[in-house]
Specification:
This protein is an alpha+beta fold. The chain has 4 helices and 9 strands; from the N terminus they run αααβββββββββα. The radius of gyration is 32 Å and the shape is globular.
């Protein structure tokens, strides 16, 4: 949201130091010299009653800023207020809900596709292929149909190094994860259920073994 501010600057001229006198050829009695505030000077006429308009420009600017802020706030919508969960919103953009772990506390989705997702805490678990995924408390990015870009807050462990996942896309029944110039593909069916922190997608197997 951008704010518009107006600044009135007077670098070499100070109107408040001006004094007023009646013209020399006027038969009227000279008006004593006096100093007037800046806004009062703008509306002063020796032959007419003094008109004070000191607060009018300020009120106009305040109304303009208020309308601008109101429009900016209305242009930002949170789908959470409409009753949809973060997982349901993923499905509307052609993503399986399982690309987010359990424990989403809240989220904000703006009209331009930018979003913020907040988890209860950091979350790590293993996935197919020997990879490990890590989700931070806050995840941001930009979503469109079948595409997640500019991701921050999600990383994958490749060999012994953690690297940030910057993009995820869907197509041909697969999920493509991009880590810089590298990418890895997984079947969409692997992400139909939301993973749990710690045990990931294998929590049911762990419970049955115990």
């Amino acid at each position: 949201m951008q704010l518009i501010t107006a600044h009135v600057m007077s670098k070499h001229l100070s109107l408040s130091s001006f004094s007023f006198r009646a013209p020399q050829d006027s038969p009227e009695k000279a008006i004593p010299s006096r100093k007037l505030p800046f806004q009062t000077f703008l509306s002063f006429n020796p032959k007419k009653p003094l008109s004070l308009k000191t607060h009018l420009p300020i009120m106009q600017i305040s109304k303009t800023l208020f309308v601008f802020c109101l429009i900016s706030c209305l242009s930002m919508t949170s789908s959470q207020e409409q009753g949809a969960t973060a997982y349901e919103m993923l499905e509307k953009f052609n993503f399986p809900r399982g690309i987010l772990p359990q424990g989403v506390r809240s989220y904000v989705l703006n009209t331009d596709g930018s979003f913020e997702v907040y988890l209860d805490g950091e979350c790590k678990f293993g996935v197919e292929g020997g990879y490990s995924l890590s989700y931070g408390r806050k995840i941001t990015g930009k979503v469109s149909f079948g595409s997640l870009r500019n991701l921050k807050g999600v990383s994958v462990k490749v060999l012994f190094v953690w690297m940030g996942i910057t993009e995820v896309s869907t197509g041909n029944g697969e999920l493509d994860f991009y880590v810089g110039p590298l990418s890895a593909s997984f079947p969409l069916s692997n992400f139909l259920d939301c993973p749990q922190c710690g045990c990931g997608f294998n929590c049911k197997d762990i419970v049955s073994d115990s």
